[in-house]
């Protein structure tokens, strides 16, 4: 008698494996940065052979680029008439206060800062910020120095994200969203003014010249 006919090996679900590798990569890169993360670690977390990383993505660098690629919220740039204050409020909610569990709780832009010493990562970060969020800001500003004022707003939001999720500064970490958004709205309003207050000139430093 012959035994039962062996079943053909199960075909690997390419889409599911690729998604599992991306999920594992997001967590590893967020926690450990690019240089601190190994391909074998990512593959081990996904339960597959490390060779599949190179088969599906080509290289660790390309896996990183895809893992951290997050487009600005659809509402951000979709409506060119959306008020700047509303846009800044949405980004405050999503970037600074959002719970990005697939990136270990923080927005991927903040996670990329841990690897920004690498030129390729820095270029990707600059592209995502300057050609995405900040361009949307500048397009909504009138008057002089629109790009500079847009970048100052970006620095405000990014800096808040760093203080809250990376540094863990006490006041901002504990502040509720509704309280923070009120204060941020005041700062955004000041930077949005087409005709800001004139330069008051240099101020004397207490004790200077004494």
UniProtKB/TrEMBL annotation:
InterPro entries (UniProt xref): Homeodomain-like_sf, HTH-type_TetR-like_transc_reg, HTH_TetR, Tet_transcr_reg_TetR-rel_C_sf, TetR_C_16
Residue span of region Disordered: 191-210
The keyword DNA-binding is assigned to this record: yes
Keyword DNA-binding: yes
Domain of life according to the entry: Bacteria
Entries under Gene3D superfamilies matching the protein: Homeodomain-like, Tetracycline Repressor, domain 2
Pfam families attached to this UniProt entry: TetR_C_16 (PF17920), TetR_N (PF00440)
Keywords linked to the UniProt accession: DNA-binding
Limits of the HTH tetR-type domain: 15-75
Bilayer-crossing regions: none
Ranges annotated as DNA-binding: 38-57
PANTHER family noted in UniProt: HTH-TYPE TRANSCRIPTIONAL REGULATOR RUTR, TRANSCRIPTIONAL REGULATORY PROTEIN
Protein name as catalogued: TetR family transcriptional regulator
Organism: Streptomyces amakusaensis
